[in-house]
Specification:
The complex is a heterodimer. Chain A is mostly helical. Chain A is built from 26 helices and four strands. A four-stranded mixed β-sheet of chain A has the order 1-2-4-3. The longest helix of chain A has 25 residues, at about 105-130. Chain A starts with a helix and ends with a strand. Chain B is mainly α. Chain B has two domains: about 25-315, no CATH class; about 355-460, no CATH class. Helices cover about 60% and strands about 5% of the residues of chain B. Chain B has 20 helices and four strands. Chain B is globular, with a radius of gyration of 26 Å. The chains are: A mainly alpha, B mainly alpha.
Chain lengths: ~525, ~450
């Protein structure tokens, strides 16, 4: 029997044999991809993506070094506190990709790579929901909700790879869990090379192991299925060893996660602050989940119970796990809300929703928009890459904000190199930017707190908080100048100290130098 | 207030806002605690707080048992809620709120189930609300609880058939009358409607809220949050495994208090107290209906044995004896003389006890106004009543400008000296580690007056 959608398609083909409308008009999924990509690349969000902290600069600088030296970085080159110490880069391949993009397009390159990853993650999530039988209207709503919940972490950094690969791994495992006849080899084997890629792209590849673990634990009663998951999971673990640091990468990550001082120091490892606007999306998604559980009362599979509980707990622990929770929980929400909508009795509101949903589905099935995607990508690339491609002034300028980072101060140092000498003490959040903007100087600390280790981070904290013993720490690391936010308490202390003098100040930063003895 | 036999209506403890109008949000609790403190010292205050805490636990346990839950399950769930509440068991007026939440939640729940008559509800809860409004500023939680029941009743009434409507209408009307009555009785306080305005002003001011740790969201890295996490997990597992058909009121209670407890750590105990009867009811039903297994048989056997032992025990004798014994122990020096059996004092490693003693011995060591640590402000109002503090934890008496100035100076931000000069600060008393001490040590116009491992005093050189 012919469905409404098929009838609509047949009608379209009769009217337009070349099917141009289908190729040009974007489907809902394509629209999500295009809108997210354009919004991130062209709106002020592009500035947020590179200015939220110093890590985008840090990754560019490290990637730049690897591209210049044509080798993976294995010893620190950027700090004076741990210069030459063995370095395990958790995301060397991402850093190379970001550096190549940035070297070609400036900061627009990092924004483009980041936006492509985010848009593709959301598009894949949407495709996943459709593939499981969710109506396009509901799927769009839930994907937008997931986007809202995860948007606080949309920064041009390697962790975006983890979001994308989490969708791929969770999707594949879910299909296998529900349809084991499809074959472990066909469904799960592609995850093995992807795990190798993941282990080289970002340190949170352990997320993949957790997903395998949850599905294996749930299928404990079905040995054949559980064995398939365990074998592929173990192979993925082995595949993850194919990286420049082998097993040391894994040991390094485990050590980092077990070190509370380091984990607490990074903002993204803190518990979510539900007073902050950035957490509204997460709170809303929790509310949708809570309403589902208390109103619809779905019979959840044990895997889904484990996934919701485990990732819910991890999201409450660390704000960086919120996007992963948002991705994992969305298909569960979609499945049960879809069933609830199907099973709901007829009311005026439900009838209105069903009519709207049917119309949206029909329109969605008659559209595709791949041609438009290609056109938009070419135009966007042209806009972002105008100066290197065609010369002249850039159309879209993406730069580090001078009111967030010490842009004027670094220009002053570059113009007056003799103003400072010796080693610096810098703000934690500015470390990555200083690595990039002042390559001739070595930083005290930057966003790689896993590399610096607890002892150095504690020393840094003593000075940063102007605790007792701050002078001893500065002497220990032979610090002769500081570059800190203007209102930083250490500046006040240095201004009162006879051994130090103010070398530079503006609205953002102040530089103090030790007087020569 | 006891000394002057009057309610405190103006700020008298700090010099930064002298004579500012003060709307006391917990005057009655302060009188009760002060009486206990005057009679039995710190031990008296701890005794009052302990009696309230124990009563909260006892009431919750009684409610769970009265609702037909098995003794073992009721005890475990009560202990779980106790663990959540205990993170906030400090000898302060907010304990009155925990107590009132248990009573309000219990009575409203039973009214919803037809076990409490509208008349009893309309007499008991407005009277308790009048008490609550004088004991602690969080009495608006009572309005929220009644509001949830009222909202659910309205929704049920809208959805109901013609036959069901009269009964629901009666319930809705009673709850509306209760909300109004509670609102009116909450005005029976020394400040009338101004108290409500003050509470709203306080809870809607992010600057003031940000000053208080308990208004911040829970930190899930903190071990103290673990009991709250366990309650969340038990709730989640109930929804996922037991899948009970929850009453609309229970759904609203769980969702509203879950959101509020995620926003503020101080709402965690309220969530636990409100959610525990719901959790106990459905877990109990689930365990009763579950197919027997070895673990379940053992659980039922243990539960039956405990129940039979419990039935043999008396109910009031032991608690009364324990309370009397505690009073005698605490009042021993006053009643019988000699050394106290149990000493409860502020720890000299956390509060500047020695520094205050030094100032008492050498009153001329410092002159003029002080700049003090935020947490120590309350202690100074008690330990050095002859001196006015810069800042104490009752932040709502301060103008926003004073709060901002305090924070800037306290953080050592640029302009800290101007702020000290603006308020004519001539000496500081701060924790030894405080960064302002390092600033002052470098200043030629300040000198170290006193220092010990806890506190440091700097004085301005005339």
């Amino acid at each position: 029997m012919e469905t409404g959608v098929q009838r609509s398609r047949r009608h379209d083909l009769r009217e337009d044999p070349l099917n141009t409308r289908r190729w040009l008009l974007p489907s809902l999924g394509t629209t999500i991809w295009v809108v997210v990509l354009l919004a991130l690349c062209l709106s002020d969000w592009r500035l947020v993506m590179i200015n939220a902290d110093g890590d985008p600069s840090l990754h560019w600088r490290i990637g730049q070094w690897m591209v210049e030296h044509r080798s993976v970085i294995r010893a620190d080159q950027f700090s004076h506190t741990r210069f030459g110490a063995p370095l395990i880069s958790k995301e060397w391949l991402s850093e190379v990709i970001f550096a190549v993009a940035n070297d070609r397009l400036g900061w627009n390159g990092a924004v483009l790579v980041g936006a492509l990853l985010i848009a593709t993650t959301l598009w894949l999530l949407y495709r996943w929901l459709l593939a499981e039988g969710c109506e396009p209207l509901l799927a769009t709503g839930l994907v937008l909700l997931a986007a809202l919940a995860s948007s606080h972490h949309w920064l041009a950094r390697p962790h975006l790879i983890t979001l994308l690969l989490t969708v791929v791994f969770a999707w594949r495992l879910r299909i296998f869990d529900r349809n084991p006849e499809a074959g472990a080899l066909k469904l799960l084997a592609p995850l093995i090379p992807l795990m190798t890629l993941w282990a080289n792209l970002h340190g949170a590849f352990f997320t993949g192991f957790v997903l395998f673990g949850v599905y294996a634990a749930d299928n404990f009663a079905q040995p054949k299925k559980a064995l398939a998951i365990v074998i592929v999971g173990a192979t993925c673990v082995a595949a993850s060893l194919i990286n420049p640091n082998g097993w040391r990468l894994h040991a390094h990550i485990i050590q980092f996660l077990r070190e509370p001082v380091l984990a607490k120091f990074a903002n993204e490892f803190r518990s979510p602050n539900f007073h902050s606007d950035a957490m509204r999306g997460f709170l809303l998604q929790l509310l949708v989940l809570a309403v589902l559980l208390v109103v619809v009362r779905p019979q959840l599979r044990a895997t889904d119970v484990l996934l919701v509980s485990a990732w819910g707990y991890l999201a409450f622990q660390s704000v960086r796990n919120v996007p992963i929770f948002a991705i994992i929980v969305t298909p569960i929400l979609a499945e049960h809300w879809q069933a609830a909508i199907h099973g709901a009795g007829s009311s005026r509101m439900m009838e209105w929703y069903r009519r709207l949903s049917t119309n949206v589905t029909q329109i969605d099935h008659s559209t595709d928009g791949r041609a438009m995607v290609v056109v938009i990508l070419i135009v966007l690339l042209g806009v972002l890459a105008k100066p290197p491609l065609f010369g002249g002034q850039p159309i879209v300028v993406t730069e580090i904000l001078p009111d967030h980072f010490p842009v004027a101060a670094t220009r002053f140092i570059t113009a007056n190199p003799h103003v400072v000498r010796g080693e610096m003490f810098n703000d934690y959040g500015w470390g990555g930017y200083l690595m990039l903007a002042l390559p001739e100087h070595k930083v005290f600390v930057d966003g790689r707190n896993d590399f610096y280790g607890p002892e150095l981070i504690k020393d840094f904290d003593v000075v940063n908080r102007a605790h007792l013993g701050w002078e001893d720490v500065l002497r220990k690391y032979r610090v002769d100048w500081t570059i800190l936010p203007r209102a930083h308490p250490l500046n006040e202390l240095l201004s009162l100290h006879q051994d130090w003098s103010l070398s530079y100040t503006d609205q953002v930063a102040a530089i103090y130098s030790r007087r020569p003895e | 207030m006891l000394q002057h036999r009057a309610i405190l209506r103006t700020e008298i403890f700090s010099y930064t806002c002298p004579g500012a109008p003060l709307v006391e949000m917990w005057w009655l609790s302060e009188i009760v605690l002060a009486l206990a403190g005057n009679l039995l010292g710190w031990g008296g205050i701890v005794l009052v707080a302990s009696v309230v805490c124990a009563t909260i636990v006892w009431l919750l346990h009684r409610q769970l048992l009265a609702e037909g839950n098995e003794l073992l399950l009721a005890t475990v769930f009560t202990l779980l809620a106790t663990a959540v509440c205990a993170t906030h068991w400090l000898a302060r007026p907010h304990l009155a709120t925990q107590l009132m939440v248990v009573v309000f939640a219990w009575q409203l729940r039973w009214f919803n189930r037809g076990r409490v008559t509208p008349r009893r509800l309309l007499v008991l809860l407005p009277l308790l609300m009048a008490l609550w409004a004088n004991l602690h500023g969080s009495f608006i939680i009572g309005f929220v609880l009644i509001g949830i029941y009222l909202t659910a009743a309205v929704v049920k009434w809208v959805r109901a058939t013609a036959e069901q409507r009269p009964a629901l209408h009666e319930r809705m009307t009673a709850l509306l009358a209760l909300e109004i009555a509670c609102f009116l009785t909450s005005l029976l306080n020394p400040n009338g409607w101004k108290l409500l305005v003050q509470v709203i002003r306080y809870t809607s001011n992010p600057l003031m809220m940000g000053m208080t740790q308990e208004f911040l969201p829970p930190n899930f890295h903190d071990l103290g949050t673990l009991p709250f996490v366990i309650v969340l997990v038990v709730t989640l597992l109930m929804l996922l495994i037991v899948r009970p058909r929850l009453d609309l009121t229970d759904k609203l209670l769980l969702i509203v208090w879950l959101v509020l407890s995620l926003r503020m750590v101080r709402n965690g105990p309220v969530f636990a107290l409100v959610a525990t009867p719901i959790l106990a009811e459905h877990w109990n039903a689930y365990l009763c209906a579950a197919a027997p297994s070895r673990i379940l048989r053992r659980y039922r056997g243990l539960s039956a044995r405990l129940t039979s032992i419990d039935q043999m025990a008396g109910s009031c004798g032991l608690p009364a004896l324990a309370t009397i014994a505690m009073i005698l122990v605490l009042a021993k020096p006053r009643l019988f003389g000699g050394q106290p059996l149990l000493t409860t004092e502020l720890p000299a490693t956390q509060f500047p006890v020695a520094a205050v003693e030094f100032l008492r011995q050498s009153p001329n060591a410092v002159h003029g106004e002080m700049f003090n640590d935020y947490v120590w402000g309350g202690y100074f109002t008690l330990a050095m009543p002859e001196r006015k503090v810069f800042f104490h934890p009752i932040v709502l008496v301060y103008e926003e400008e004073v709060i901002r100035d305090f924070l800037r100076a306290n953080n050592g931000e640029p302009g800290w000296e101007d702020i000290l000069a603006k308020y004519h600060v001539n000496w500081t008393i701060l924790p030894r580690e405080h960064r302002l001490n390092r600033f002052l040590a470098r200043r030629a116009d300040w000198r170290l007056v006193y220092s010990d491992p806890v506190a440091t005093i700097y004085g301005r050189i005339p």
